[in-house]
Amino acid sequence: MFNASVLPRICKMIKWIYVENSRMRSVFIVEFISSILAICIALLTLLAIIFNKTLHFNMRLLLICFWGAIIIACIGTLIDSSYYLIAIISKMDAELCAWLSFTQSDCIALRNVYYMGLLMIVVSTLFLSVERVIATLFYQTYERNPCKWISISMALSQISSL
Question: Cα(23)–Cα(14) distance, rounded to whole angstroms?
Answer without folding.
Answer: 14
